[in-house]
Amino acid sequence: MTKYWLMKTEPGCYSIDDLATEDKQITPWDGVRNYQARNFMKDDMELGDMVLFYHSVTSPSVVGLAEVARESYPDHTAWNPDDPHFDPKSPEDNPRWFMVDVKFVEKFSNPLPLKFLRTVKGLEGMELLRKGSRLSVMPVTESEFDIICRIARES
DNA sequence: GCCAACGTTGGC
DNA sequence: GCCAACGTTGGC
């Protein structure tokens, strides 16, 4: 059963264009340092699951689609003292942080702004729209996913 | 830049 | 196990 997700990134840090121009259009989703977000990647994400790609901060919007290309494995950036996401409490023999690989699927011709999503019928319950929602990896229902894809193709 | 909403840390 | 202090996220 395909599941559906939303993954956030600051485009100044890593954008959907960065993903589209990666070798094989695949990137490890490293640097997540939140247990809830980690657990979704570690325990629930499966190969082929679909991902709404979300840009935060500059112009908050869903900008395209990606898919899970590799299931969870340790986030090695936690092992590198020179990496900004280095975590001494996540040693190689007992890793604390995990990540998946994500593959580019599609960039929407028109991104769907957060502000607009708030007005769409059927999305009222979306985790993303919850006040104070800060999760960078979160589940999306199939119906929410379908609605968003349909609108993205209409516009 | 502000600030609300969270998550984490650490003293007790 | 509680909770205050602190740091971070992310919309505005």
Automatic annotation (TrEMBL):
**Which Pfam families does this UniProt record tie to the protein?**
EVE
Q: Which CDD domains match?
A: EVE
Name the InterPro entries on file: 5hmC_binding, EVE_domain, PUA-like_sf, THYN1-like_EVE
Question: Which keywords does the record carry?
Answer: Phosphoprotein
Domain EVE, chain residue ranges per copy: 3-150
Which superkingdom does the taxonomy of this entry point to?
A: Bacteria
Q: Does the keyword Transmembrane apply?
A: no
Q: What is this protein called?
A: Predicted RNA-binding protein, contains PUA-like domain
* Taxonomy of the source species: Bacteria, Pseudomonadati, Thermodesulfobacteriota, Desulfovibrionia, Desulfovibrionales
